Amino acid sequence: MPDIKHFDPDTVLEKVMRLFWRQGVASTGIQDVVTATGLNRSSLYATFGGKQELYRAALRRYLEDCSEPAFRRLAGDGRGLPAVADFFAALIEARCSGPYARWGCMVSNAHAGAENGDAEVRTALDQHHRMLREALYEALVTARAEQQLAPGTDLGAAADLLALLAYGVNLRSRAGADARELTKTVTAALGSLSTA
User: Fold this and answer.
1) d(CA 31, CA 143)
2) Exposure winner among 14, 160, 161, 188, fewest CB in 10 A?
């Protein structure tokens, strides 16, 4: 007879993702997970495995639900530098106000934590970086076609710079940086690439 679950694993994973995102994996014990989900340990272990497996699943969920849609929108936007500016404006708004303010980015948090020593986590972080850089690169290709970039701009180096800037926004916002200061920095970075 099959085991019947009396909970929705998808809903549980969503709660766990938010818990790890807010607190970080090192600061989150299995009892925190039990309290947040209302499940007992045996149900969690039977469904997801141990804490590390649960964290990996939560990180994959974050990539799929939070990161990838934003990257697809940026890559397909078609406006060039205004699309990049809007990407950063939305990032700063999400990181500095609303329900997830000061949580940073789960991926950036993982880059800065011990969890990046796990091979599967490292693969997810590398995948995230690749997608972020590619989306920025695509927007810069459009910007060049629209003659929005300063002559001689190296698109690869500019995409690398902007990807690092996104990580910086995520980490600084978690530490309490002011949205106006973050916006000022992004504006300066984009201005250094622009023909205007």
Assistant:
1) 49
2) 188
Per-residue pLDDT of 78-108, as tens digits, reads: 999 999 999 999 999 999 999 999 999 999 9
Q: Which CATH number is 62-193's, of 3.40.980.10, 3.40.50.1580, 1.10.357.10, 3.30.360.10?
A: 1.10.357.10
Q: Are 67 and 107 in contact (CB under 8 A)?
A: yes
- Supply φ then ψ for residue 78, to 5 degrees: 85, 10
- Name the pTM for this structure: 0.92
- How far apart are the C-alpha atoms of 118 and 122, rounded to whole Å? 6
- b/e sequence 114-139, b meaning 16+ C-beta within 10 Å: ebbebeebeebbeebbebbbebbbbb
